[in-house]
Amino acid sequence: MRDAKTKAMAGPRPVVFSGPSGAGKSTLLKKLMKEYDGVFGFSVSHTTRNPRPGEENGKDYHYVTREVMQTAIDNGDFIENAEFSGNMYGTSKAAVQAVQAKNLICILDIDMQGVRNIKRTDLNPIYISIQPPSMAVLEKRLRDRKTESEESLQKRLRAAQVDMEFSKEPGMFDVLIMNDNLEDAYGQLKHALSEEIGMVKKVNMSS
Ligand SMILES: Nc1nc2c(ncn2[C@@H]2O[C@H](COP(=O)(O)OP(=O)(O)O)[C@@H](O)[C@H]2O)c(=O)[nH]1
Ligand SMILES: Nc1ncnc2c1ncn2[C@@H]1O[C@H](COP(=O)(O)OP(=O)(O)O)[C@@H](O)[C@H]1O
């Protein structure tokens, strides 16, 4: 456990976003970061998947080869890493430190293996699960997003089923948000984080 002093030095509590691919994590967190400019900072993960149109290296992800990623993992550069849908993903220590150095609330978008592994660290985040209203809605959203091949889509849907069960495990998440209507889900998210947002605004305004 971190004592009060180290906690204060590390800045505000990070926030973990998890939930099935296509549940709306990126949509919600981008909205949040836009509205609360200077409050949140995104932990830019590493991945071996290819960038999608519109995604930027260093902003959405650090896009790397398996070799580069494995070497960095072996080097102890990562807080956690996982294999998802045939690709490697991971949170580097540097990604989180870069956000915490600016005294911002660090946002992590990670899968359920990441959640399990972060629970073994002293990061002490708020765990938020974003869930879709149903598998049918999730499938429609993923298809309409037009980012996945049929094979990748099927892999994501299979992982989603496991994820939806995982999110029901007692004590796994602090907040569960069902993303049916976007504005409602966003309202719930802001409400869940209102105390942390208030604290960061106060501290950063007076410094
Ligand atoms: N464990 C872990 N999972 C990650 C990390 N970065 C992204 N993910 C997860 O990997 C999954 C796939 O992400 P992505 O390929 O961007 O697809 P999308 O979720 O459909 O937009 C999602 O569940 C993400 O939350 C990471 O650093 N660690
Ligand atoms: N509440 C919602 N209603 C309808 N479509 C949504 C909603 N939330 C997100 N979407 C859409 O669903 C797709 C998946 O959302 P995205 O944020 O990419 O999910 P994730 O980051 O969890 O994989 C996107 O095309 C997004 O625009």
Counted beta strands: 9
Total number of helical segments?
A: 8
Name the CATH class.
Alpha Beta
**Total discrete domains:** 1
Q: Mind explaining what this structure looks like?
A:
Its main location: cytoplasm. This is Guanylate kinase. Pfam families: Guanylate_kin. Its EC number is 2.7.4.8. Residues 12-194 form the Guanylate kinase-like domain. The two termini are 28 Å apart. It is built from eight helices and nine strands. The chain has one domain: Rossmann fold (3-Layer(aba) Sandwich), CATH 3.40.50. Helix 6 (135-145) packs antiparallel against helix 7 (150-166). The protein is 45% helix and 20% strand. Residues 1-8 have low confidence and may be disordered. It has helices at 4-10, 25-35, 66-74, 93-100, 112-118, 135-145, 150-166, 182-205, and strands at 15-18, 40-42, 45-47, 61-63, 78-84, 87-92, 105-109, 126-131, 175-178. The chain has a five-stranded parallel beta sheet, with helices on both faces. It has 207 residues and is an alpha/beta fold. Strand 5 and strand 6 (87-92) form a beta hairpin.
